[in-house]
Every structure is written in C-alpha cells, then in structure tokens.
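Technical annex, item 7. During the second reporting period the consortium partners agreed on a shared format for inverse folding records so that results from different sites could be compared directly. Each record opens with the tokenized structure and is followed by the designed sequence. A conforming record, contributed by the partner at site C, is shown below for reference.
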C-alpha cells in the first residue's frame, strides 16, 4: 500500500464499518437527499470502485451533488462519507486520474475534506447565528459531526503518504476533522503538517485551512499573510469533469 500510519491516531472507538457493510446495511431509500431520497446512491458509490478512472471521477461528481448540494449536509451525507472513507485503502483508490499522475485517492480525500468543512465549527457557527438549534443533539449536522473521530481514523494513515497530492488532501481533511474535542492532544502534531501546507502548498484554500487551524489552536503561523475574516469561503469540490480533459 502507498501509505504509512501516522502518530496522530484518533480514539479507537468507534470503528469505521467496512464499506461493504455501509453499502448493504444502510436503508438508502429512507434517507433524505436534495433531490428526494438516496435509493440511487448504492449504484453511484459502487462506481467509485470501477477501475476506469473516468467512471470514478464522474461518480464522485454525482455523489457531490446527491449528498452535498449547495454545501448542505443531508441525511444521506453521513453514510456516503463513511463509504468514501472506507474505500481509501481499496486498490481502486490508487487508479491515476485521467491525464494526471495523481491517484483517485487524492480526490476522495478532497471530497471528505470539503464535506467535513460543510459541518465545521466555522460554518456551523455562522449558521447557528441565524438558525438557533441548528446543532441541537440528534439533528442531521450534529449526527454527522459525531462521525469525525471515525472519519479521522480513516484519513490519518495518509498524512505521510508518498504522493504529495494525497498527503496534502489528507492533511486538510485531518485539520478540519480535528476540530472535534477528542483530538486536542493531537493538535501539536497536526500543527507540523499545517505549517508544511503553508510552506509548500500552492493552493490558497488549503493554506487558509492550515492557517485557520493554527490560529484556532494557539499556534503561530510564521510567514503567512494575516487571515481576513469572511475571505475563507471553501469552493465546492470540483465536479471532476476537468480531470477528463488534457491539461493545456
């Protein structure tokens, strides 16, 4: 496998169910999506394991619309995220994207990061100002946020991946998921990865995520521009169709 374990491990419980169990035991038809229910999700999720990278990328694009339309967390978002996290170690995740020598695993991690951000402290805090009770126990968003330790455990082995795109995507996902209180003792370790993003990444959004995490955890971010409130708007995950075309 093209990954190594990180010292920034998450709590051992609960374990992430095998992706096959998530797929077969979830009552997808009973779960809300922006376009009705999730009865079509098993077919879309299964296509993520197709060895054809074009099929995989299109499936990830469809998934983003079906469970993350307009950056919203739906009932079907949580099991979909568990499935994606569960296939990170699958051989199909090593398939290179079309025209790019980047494993599909990087796109899966980016999708998890974007989805986790939609339920992050930043977004939830803004929403709560306008919709009190938005984060009450048992709500859709609160239930999704409860999965963060489980999702972190799936992401953390790739923090030191040999491929820089996979490594960076894993770091960004981990920084967002590590807002969960269970990870307070791991944040010094994650701060090292965050500083690496500031030093080496050419992605402005990823740099902002890293800087925001360092500031929230009381760490200095030397050499970075001051963070401007209101300027950190995470772009929705690319629909992936650009991956199907040669770069120009």
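Designed sequence (site C submission):
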């Amino acid at each position: 496998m093209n990954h190594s374990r990180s010292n920034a491990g998450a709590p051992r419980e609960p374990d992430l169910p095998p992706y096959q169990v998530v797929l077969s035991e979830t009552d997808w038809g009973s779960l809300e999506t922006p376009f009705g229910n999730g009865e079509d999700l098993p077919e879309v999720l299964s296509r993520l394991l197709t060895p054809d990278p074009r099929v995989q990328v299109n499936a990830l694009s469809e998934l983003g619309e079906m469970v993350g339309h307009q950056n919203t967390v739906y009932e079907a978002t949580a099991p979909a995220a568990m499935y994606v996290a569960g296939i990170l170690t699958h051989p199909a995740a090593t398939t290179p994207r079309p025209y790019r020598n980047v494993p599909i695993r990087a796109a899966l991690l980016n999708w998890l990061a974007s989805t986790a951000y939609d339920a992050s402290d930043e977004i939830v805090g803004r929403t709560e100002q306008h919709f009190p009770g938005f984060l009450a126990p048992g709500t859709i968003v609160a239930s999704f946020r409860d999965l963060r330790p489980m999702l972190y455990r799936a992401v953390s082995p790739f923090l030191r991946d040999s491929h820089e795109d996979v490594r960076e995507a894993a770091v960004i996902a981990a920084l967002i998921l590590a807002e969960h209180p269970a990870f307070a003792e791991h944040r010094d370790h994650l701060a090292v990865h965050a500083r690496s993003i500031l030093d080496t990444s050419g992605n402005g959004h990823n740099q902002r995520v890293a800087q925001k995490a360092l500031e929230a955890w009381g760490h200095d971010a030397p050499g970075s521009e001051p963070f401007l409130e209101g300027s950190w708007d995470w772009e929705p995950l690319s629909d992936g169709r650009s991956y199907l075309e040669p770069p120009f």
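The chain is about 50% helix and 0% strand. The radius of gyration is 17 Å. All partners now use this format for quarterly exchanges.
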